[in-house]
Every structure is written in C-alpha cells, then in structure tokens.
Amino acid sequence: MKVALLGYGKMGQIIERFALERGHEVVLKINADNLDDLNKSNLSKADVAIDFSAPDAAISNIYACFEANLPIVVGTTGWYGQLQEVKNECLSSNNTLLYGSNFSIGVNIFFHVNKVLAKLMSNFPAYDVQVEEIHHTQKLDSPSGTAMTIAEGIIEELDGKTEWVNELVGSPFEDVIKKEQVLIESHRIENVPGTHTVVYSSEVDDIELKHTAHSRAGFALGAIVAAEWLQNKQGFYNIADIFNFK
Ligand SMILES: NC(=O)C1=CN([C@@H]2O[C@H](COP(=O)(O)OP(=O)(O)OC[C@H]3O[C@@H](n4cnc5c(N)ncnc54)[C@H](O)[C@@H]3O)[C@@H](O)[C@H]2O)C=CC1
Ligand SMILES: O=C(O)C1=N[C@H](C(=O)O)C[C@H](O)C1
C-alpha cells in the first residue's frame, strides 16, 4: 500500500515505522508546517490516507480525501460532534472512511467487555458507574474519544443512564451529577499514553475494569491493520466492524 500520513506527530511517526515494517510505502507526510502539500495531486499518489492530526484539522482533511476519492482511516479524536454529517457526505459521494476512537486490540476487547458488564449491572441498582481517563498533558481534547465510546457503550446497555458529562480535573466544574448521567473524569498527567477505567461502586465494594496502554504501539499497529482491512472496500466503517465481537 502507498500511505499518506496526515499528521506526522507522536502517532504519525510510529505508524510510519509499522507501515514500513509491514512492507508498505509512505508517499506523503503532512504536518502543520507543510499544509500546502495536502492537495489532490499529492493525495492521488496514495492508496490510503491515515489521519492522526488534531481535532480542528480532521474534518478538512477528511473532505480533502473525499475530494481526491482516497480512502481514509481516521484516528484523530475530538470531531465526533460532526460524525453524522461526515457519514452522510462519505456515503453520498461514494467514498470510504474508517474511524475509531482507539485502534488497540486491548481497548477494543475492553469496549466489548464493558457492554457485557453494563448489561449485567442493570440487575444490580445498588451500584453506580463512573468512567475515568488519564492522558498526557499535550492532549487537546477532553474527554478522550475512548472514554466517550466507553460511556456510550454503558448508556446503550445499562438501564437508567441516558447521557454522559465530563469533568476535566483541575478545571472549574460545578455540575451536580444527575442519576441518569455517567460522569467521565479526565486527568492530565505527564507522559501517560492512555489509561481508562470503568468503576461500579456500591456502599460495600467496587468493581473496576481497567485498560492501561504501556506505549502508543498498539494504537499505531491497529491503524495500519485497519488501513489494510479497508483495501477494496467502500463505505463508512468503525473499528468495531473489523473485530466484530459477538
Ligand atoms: N484512535 C486512536 O487509537 C488514537 C488517537 N489519537 C488521536 O490522534 C490525534 C493525534 O495524536 P498525536 O499524534 O499524539 O498528536 P501530535 O500533536 O503529536 O501530532 C499531531 C500532528 O498533526 C499535525 N497537524 C496539525 N494540523 C494538521 C493538519 N491540518 N493536517 C495534518 N497534520 C496536522 C501537527 O503538526 C502534529 O505534528 C489526536 O487527536 C489523538 O487524540 C492518538 C492516539 C491513538
Ligand atoms: O490523544 C491521545 O494520546 C489518545 N487519544 C485517543 C483518545 O482520545 O481516546 C486514544 C488514546 O487513548 C490516546
């Protein structure tokens, strides 16, 4: 595969390493300082684009790929408010996009187990649930995309929960958490690649489900595997479509 890397920061550089190891070629690398190179002519040299850029860059990068009819894998988080609009545009222009809040195998197993546990916990109303995420201090978005996916999985399966709210610890937060809300608590600590915990608490005990990324390697390998999976496909996909856990 010929790969265009949209975003060549912490993730883009590790993705390049895995791409080369797996026999692919990187034909384009875009960062904030060479955005002029992100044009139809350069994009048309690639078989797939992989976007790990920034929350405020993802949408225009996606549309640039649609314009060039180039399939795109989107790892960037923080743009999901426009997900439906992007999906409509992807499908109506016969383009191809796969997105995921987290590409690591471990977190995708976690997503599945989280939903199974949430369904079970509907039988035990003595427990209330909370999601915690910890990331490095350069992270631009809060809550993490992964924490949003986890909270949405809980809302889908746990009776009585209808929405999530976010507290970025250290920032002003005066909300009173309502019974129907899932609190996502975000912590920013130097050098943490990504830790997510779901905690069910009752008066007598806690149950915790936790994923700790030791590095960014799992995310990066997952993004390349997703790009390989996307070859010869058309449409709008989520990382869950690859794993298809039952
Ligand atoms: N889905 C997943 O598994 C994962 C997602 N992420 C997400 O990926 C994104 C990037 O993460 P990092 O690599 O850690 O960030 P980073 O800040 O290290 O790198 C981002 C790069 O994007 C570049 N950039 C800025 N504007 C751009 C534009 N318009 N087009 C192309 N590149 C542009 C910057 O110059 C920077 O080098 C974040 O949104 C993060 O949340 C990160 C890790 C895993
Ligand atoms: O910004 C990051 O670093 C990460 N972002 C993703 C997210 O928002 O969930 C995935 C991973 O946790 C690392």
TrEMBL record:
Coiled-coil blocks: none
Annotated Dihydrodipicolinate reductase C-terminal domain residues: 106-242
Keyword annotations from UniProtKB, A to Z: Amino-acid biosynthesis, Cytoplasm, Diaminopimelate biosynthesis, Lysine biosynthesis, NAD, NADP, Oxidoreductase
Keyword set includes DNA damage: no
Main location: cytoplasm
EC code(s) of this entry: 1.17.1.8
Domain Dihydrodipicolinate reductase N-terminal residue range list: 1-103
InterPro entries: DapB_C, DapB_N, DHDPR_bac, NAD(P)-bd_dom_sf
Catalytic residues in the record: 135 (proton donor/acceptor), 139 (proton donor)
Pathway: Amino-acid biosynthesis; L-lysine biosynthesis via DAP pathway; (S)-tetrahydrodipicolinate from L-aspartate: step 4/4
Record's subcellular location: Cytoplasm
Reaction equation(s) it catalyzes: (S)-2,3,4,5-tetrahydrodipicolinate + NAD(+) + H2O = (2S,4S)-4-hydroxy-2,3,4,5-tetrahydrodipicolinate + NADH + H(+); (S)-2,3,4,5-tetrahydrodipicolinate + NADP(+) + H2O = (2S,4S)-4-hydroxy-2,3,4,5-tetrahydrodipicolinate + NADPH + H(+)
Record flagged with keyword ATP-binding: no
GO terms assigned for molecular function: 4-hydroxy-tetrahydrodipicolinate reductase; NAD binding; NADP binding; oxidoreductase activity, acting on CH or CH2 groups, NAD or NADP as acceptor
Binding site for (S)-2,3,4,5-tetrahydrodipicolinate: 136, 145-146
Binding site for NAD(+): 75-77, 100-103
GO biological process: diaminopimelate biosynthetic process; lysine biosynthetic process via diaminopimelate
One CC-aspect GO term: cytosol
Sequence positions that bind NADP(+): 29
Entries under Pfam families matching the protein: DapB_C, DapB_N
Assembly and binders: Homotetramer.
Family note: Belongs to the DapB family.
HAMAP family linked: DapB (MF_00102)
Function, as annotated: Catalyzes the conversion of 4-hydroxy-tetrahydrodipicolinate (HTPA) to tetrahydrodipicolinate.
Protein name: 4-hydroxy-tetrahydrodipicolinate reductase
Species annotation: Pedobacter steynii
Lineage of the organism: Bacteria, Pseudomonadati, Bacteroidota, Sphingobacteriia, Sphingobacteriales
